[in-house]
Amino acid sequence: MANKLAVLVTLLALSLGPAASQGQGSNICFNGWLRLPSSGTCPRGSRPDFRTRQRVPAPTGEGLSFGYYNNNNSYCPQAERIVKDAVKKAVDQNPGIGAGLIRLFFHDCFVRGCDGSVLLTATASGNSDTEREGPPNKDSLRGFEVIDAAKAAIEAACPGIVSCADIVAFAARDASSVLSNGRVNVPTPAGRLDGRESFANETDQLPGPFSNLTALEDSFWAKGLSPDEMVTLSGAHTIGHAKCQFFSSRFADMDPTLAAKLKAQCNGNDGTFVDQDDVTPNVLDSQYYKNVIDKKVLFDSDAALTNSTDTVTQVTDNANSAGAWERKFEKAMESMGKIGVKVRGSSGAEIRKVCSRVNN
Ligand code: HEM
Ligand SMILES: *[C@@H]1O[C@H](CO)[C@@H](O)[C@H](O)[C@H]1NC(C)=O
Ligand SMILES: *[C@@H]1O[C@H](CO)[C@@H](O)[C@H](O)[C@H]1NC(C)=O
Ligand SMILES: *[C@@H]1O[C@H](CO)[C@@H](O)[C@H](O)[C@H]1NC(C)=O
Ligand SMILES: *[C@@H]1O[C@H](CO)[C@@H](O)[C@H](O)[C@H]1NC(C)=O
Description:
Blueprint: H1 2-22, E1 26-29, E2 34-37, H2 79-93, H3 95-110, H4 144-157, H5 164-179, E3 194-195, H6 213-221, H7 227-234, E4 241-243, H8 256-266, E5 273-275, H9 287-293, H10 300-303, H11 309-320, H12 324-336, E6 349-350
Helix pairs in contact: 2-3, 2-4, 2-5, 3-5, 4-5, 7-11, 7-12, 9-11
Bound molecules: protoporphyrin IX containing FE and 2-acetamido-2-deoxy-beta-D-glucopyranose (4 copies).
One 2-acetamido-2-deoxy-beta-D-glucopyranose is lined by residues 212-213, 300, 303-304, 307.
C-alpha cells in the first residue's frame, strides 16, 4: 500500500510543481511530506494529520551501557573501532555519506525505536513494504553500504554479538565526529537489539519538510523529545543535501540571492539535489542557525523555528555562542538514541546476522 503511496507522492510532486507553489492555500499530507494545493486531497494510505499530540516521557535508555561490547556477556571489543574505520573511510571519500548516516539514525529511532527497523527489506511477518519504501526514505536515505560493511567485518570478528541498531548508533556518532572535525562527540551507550518488523506506513511519524512548528513539536513530543531538542537536532541540516521538491514552493520566502541560485540549480526538476547549507555544506557546525535567521534554509520546517519566541531564543543562542549548540547536540543525540530501545529480555528482538533481513 505504501509502495503505491510513494509512487503517488512522486507523481503528484512531479505533476503539480509550479501550480502547487502558486496556490494560496495548501493541504499538507503524510505529516508534512506532501504539499498539495488547498483543493487537493491526501492520497489513500496517508493518515490524516496530525494525530499524535501525546506527550511521552523522555526516553531513559534503560538497559543500555557504555562499553557494552567490552564485557563478557557481549564481548566484541573491536566493534566500535571497526565501525569507526568504516565510517571514516566512507566519509573521507564522500562527506554526504556522513550526513546520510546521521539521518539514518534519526529515521531509525523515530519509527519503532532505535532497533534497526529502517534497514530491513524483509520482516518476520513477511512484509516487504518496509520503512525504506516510505515517502521520507525512498530514494533518499543513504549510507546503508557503510552499515553493511561494518556489520560484515564485525560478524567475521565476533559473530552474533553486535546488533545492527548499535552499529547505526555508532556510525552516527562517528560521522558526527568526522564531519565536525572532532568537535561533536556524542556519548553512545549500547546494548540495543534489532527489531523484526518494519512498515512503510509508519514513517509518517517522522515530521516532514512542510510541517509547521506545532507539527514539529508534536512529532518530537510523541517520542519523548522536547521542543528544545527538536530545535537542537534540526541543526543537522547544516550538512548533506535535499531534493528540490521539498522547497521549490518557497523560493519567495528565502533570501533572494540564495533563492536565485537554488532556482537555477533545480532548473524546474524537483528530483535534483542541492546542498542544505550553502555556507559550509560539509561541516557539522552551528551555521544552520545563522541560516535560519538569514532566511537561507530550505524547508518550511527550518523556517518554522522563527515562529515562536521560545524557538527564536534557541536559534539565536545557537547561532551566536560558540560551542553552545555542539554541547546540546551531543546530549540530544544521546537522548534520541534511547527512544524505544529493545534490550536484553525484550520480546520480538534479536541480533541480526545481516542488517537488511531478520534471522530465519
Ligand atoms: C525537525 C524535523 C525534520 C525534518 C522535517 C527533516 C526533513 C528533511 C528532509 C526533507 C531532508 C531532505 C531529504 C531529501 O531531499 O532526500 C532532510 C535531510 C537531512 N536531514 Fe532532516 N529533517 C528533520 C530533522 C532532522 C534530524 C533530527 C536530523 C538528525 C539529527 C536530520 C538530519 C538530516 C540530514 C543529515 C540530512 C541530509 C541527508 C543526506 O544528505 O543524505 N534531520 N531532512
Ligand atoms: C571477562 O572474563 C575474564 C575471565 O573469565 C576476566 O578476567 C575479565 O576480567 C572479564 N572482563 C570483564 C570486562 O568482565
Ligand atoms: C500499515 O501497513 C501494514 C502492512 O502493509 C498493514 O497491515 C497495516 O494495517 C497498515 N497500518 C495502517 C495504519 O494503515
Ligand atoms: C499546523 O499543521 C497541522 C497539520 O497539518 C494543522 O492541522 C494545523 O492547523 C497547522 N497549524 C497552523 C498554526 O498553521
Ligand atoms: C508561522 O505561523 C503563522 C501563524 O501561526 C503561519 O501562518 C505561518 O505559516 C507559520 N510559518 C511557518 C514557517 O511555519
